[in-house]
Specification:
330 residues, 2% strand
Length: 330
């Protein structure tokens, strides 16, 4: 049984609390857990060991496929202006189609990587260690699905994508800052202006976080693209709201779901390359996430036939002329 506890004074107990935040990610065991999870997740049917293992293997194989595709495309090496790779048919060599194709691969890579992380919690902390070793942290209900229902996108479009379907790991941190902004702008809680402040603040903070991460990449590309991608999302929500009001016409209402999907895909086709190009230019896609690759092991990549992907020392000490670039290299 869970009960409210005050902040403990012993430093070891506080360290234990800090550890609790690492595997839970979304504060499910805390008072700030997202309401849609904390109010009902303990009563939902949670995945079994077989389901958790199947999800892990699915994510692993999908990462292997995407990484193999990225290896043979110079765009994902950091050459974002490169032409189409030779394995693509000439019909996709047009700049618009090529950019769309690469954006889809890049988005699939981001989604799969996060999905893969979410599969590790139930598999390792629940099925391997379990409640006998971790207590309540080993309970399966502590690790709900990372993504919401896809129907949220069809029902609410871009708002459903960000507010329900996409992972909510950083939601509390980003949304909480709106209280500070609202108080200083004299906005009343629950008013339309307060909701607008919440949305704009959350996306601006998200843009700053991702821009900072981009700037720290190997090639230190301009962080402007990733920042603009998130900073533009409130404008997309406004456009979507206008589209939804227009689509209330009786002749269009039966196609509202289709219109939302088309609008969502069009919006991301316009804005997502800002994020994808920044990550590719910084060498983010050069990171090797897999210890063993089945596809590269059977020789699907020209000039490369090896199962073991991690070469060299796992850890080394790097020294640079800038102190912030000096440290342990993984």
């Amino acid at each position: 049984m869970l009960a409210w506890q005050p902040m403990p004074k012993p430093w070891f107990a506080r360290l234990d609390w800090t550890f609790d935040l690492i595997p839970s990610l979304r504060g499910l065991n805390w008072s700030w857990g997202w309401f849609s999870e904390s109010s009902s997740v303990q009563y939902q049917h949670m995945p079994s060991l077989g389901t958790s293992l199947a999800r892990f293997l699915f994510a692993y194989l999908l990462i292997d496929v995407l990484k193999t595709i990225m290896i043979v495309d110079p765009y994902f090496w950091g050459f974002i202006d490169s032409g189409a790779p030779t394995y693509l048919p000439p019909s996709i060599a047009h700049p618009v189609l090529l950019s769309t194709y690469r954006a889809l691969i890049a988005f699939a890579g981001i989604w799969t990587a996060i999905y893969f992380i979410f599969t590790l919690g139930p598999l390792f902390l629940v099925d391997i260690l379990g409640p006998a070793f971790l207590g309540v942290r080993g309970e399966r209900w502590m690790y709900p699905a990372g993504y919401g229902s896809v129907t949220a996108i069809l029902d609410r479009g871009l708002a459903g994508f960000w507010g329900t379907w996409w992972h909510q790991m950083f939601r509390f941190v980003f949304v909480s800052a709106r209280r500070w902004v609202s108080d200083r702008m004299g906005s009343e809680w629950g008013s339309p202006s307060s909701k607008a402040i919440t949305i704009v603040t959350a996306f601006l903070l998200s843009g700053i976080v991702h821009a900072g991460g981009t700037y720290t990449l190997w090639r230190a590309p301009s962080p402007l693209g990733p920042f603009l991608f998130f900073a533009l999302q409130p404008f997309g929500l406004l456009l979507e709201l206008a589209l939804q009001k227009w689509s209330l016409n009786k002749l269009i209402r039966p196609f509202s779901r289709l219109l939302r999907l088309i609008a969502l895909l069009s919006w991301f086709r316009l804005t997502f390359p800002l994020l994808a190009d920044g990550l590719a230019a910084g060498g983010m896609r050069l990171f090797e996430p897999l210890l063993v690759s089945l596809l590269r092991g059977v020789g699907l990549v020209d000039g490369e036939s090896r199962w073991w992907c991690w070469r060299g020392p796992f850890f080394s000490w790097h020294i640079d002329n800038k102190w912030w670039r000096t440290g342990v290299v993984l």
